User: Which sequence fits this backbone?
């Protein structure tokens, strides 16, 4: 059964409370509630300025707390920086994205270019007619 709008708002409030208690930046997440199913999507990370590292055990604890919220039967997370390794949410691994280095730009040094007079003139306008 789909929760009423008031029940959905309460679930949403409790979800945000759990995330904030764990110092998660909720501004980087989308929270969706449908048919007693809670879906989190986005970037799962700590608030800026928090030095504590987010670990797989922290995420497991967060998901365990979210499952205790009345009206939530299933919790699913789809994050761009963490991947779930099992069906029960006990094992999470960080996804690291390596920035590709741009290839070095080679500029010709000491080369001589020949510029012809025809290259210096602007293109002529088509004849009017």
Assistant:
């Amino acid at each position: 059964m789909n929760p009423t709008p008031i029940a959905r708002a309460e679930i949403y409030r409790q979800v945000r409370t759990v995330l904030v208690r764990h110092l998660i930046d909720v501004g980087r997440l989308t929270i969706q509630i449908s048919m007693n199913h809670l879906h989190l999507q986005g970037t799962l990370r700590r608030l800026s300025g928090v030095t504590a590292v987010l670990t797989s055990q922290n995420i497991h604890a967060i998901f365990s707390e979210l499952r205790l919220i009345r009206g939530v039967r299933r919790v699913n997370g789809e994050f761009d920086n963490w991947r779930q390794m099992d069906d029960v949410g006990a094992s999470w691994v960080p996804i690291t994205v390596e920035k590709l280095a741009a290839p070095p730009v080679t500029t010709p040094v000491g080369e001589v270019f020949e510029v012809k007079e025809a290259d210096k003139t602007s293109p002529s306008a088509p004849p009017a007619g």
User: Anything to note?
Assistant: The chain has a mean pLDDT of 84. Residues 5-94 form a domain with the Alpha-Beta Plaits fold (CATH 3.30.70). Helices lie at 5-21, 56-67, 117-120.
